[in-house]
Amino acid sequence: MHKSVNFLEMIGGGQVPEVVVGTWVVMGLLVVFGLMARRALAAAPDPTIPDEGITLRSVAEVLVEWIDGFVAGVMETHGYRDLVPFLGSLFIFILAANFFGLIPGMEPPTSYSDLTFALGTISFFFYIYQGLRANGVHYLRSFLGPILLLAPLMLPIELADNLFRPFSLGVRLYANMFADHQVLSIFTGLLKVIFPVAFYALGAIVCVIQALIFMVLTMSYIKLAQSHEH
């Protein structure tokens, strides 16, 4: 059977891990996209008037507006907009990394557990920070349970529950994207025209759903951390 070309391995020369190369490429593309969108917005005669038709600026504005509205609907807090830059960056990066695997010869960086566990760890520290920011040191009191008498029992349970969250985030994203890419590679190699298109469409849906799930779960953890009373 003909072996498919792995361009990430070629770019890294076999010395740099493919997940690192893929992550660099995705980050580079997103930086270029952001700079071009910023330049387009700065060059507009009136930034409050949207462009006609589909342009780089209109795509960026629709994406940002959707993320802002989605975070507002889920968080339901007045200070939700402070979370939009982080959550939006997380969603866009995961989405772009997922879609990267739909390019022939490329593999999605999110099909590697190293990256997904790193993303889960970042989300973990972020929601812990948000809990401390909203409630101060009293947030740590939530790890002891509702009654101090039960603290010796509740503390290990709460610690295990919180420490498992970044692991579950990483495993969920890694497992789904790895499986999706393997299925896509197998069927596009065996079939020719019509069926590969159907699998690419299905793969695109999986890419969006997985990025959305990761962001929603992160938001739910943040909301739980912020909701603890003083």
Question: What are the SSEs and their pairings?
Answer:
Layout: H1 7-12, H2 18-43, H3 56-75, H4 84-100, H5 113-135, H6 151-190, H7 194-227
In short:
With 230 residues, the chain is an all-alpha fold.
Task: Describe the protein.
With 230 residues, the chain is mainly α. The chain has one domain. The protein has seven helices and no strands. The model has no long low-confidence stretch (mean pLDDT 85).
Name the descriptors.
mainly alpha, 230 residues, globular, 7 helices
Q: Largest sheet, if any? A: none
Which structural category fits the helices and strands? mainly alpha
Average of pLDDT: 85
By DSSP (H or I, 4+ residues per run), the number of helices equals: 7
| Fraction of residues in β-strands | under 5%
Shape descriptor reads globular
**Helices and strands, in N-to-C order?**
HHHHHHH
How far apart lie the N and C ends?
63 Å
Helix content: over 70%
What is the tally of beta strands?
A: 0
Radius of gyration equals 21 Å
Counting structural domains, the number is: 1
Catalogue the unreliable spans: none
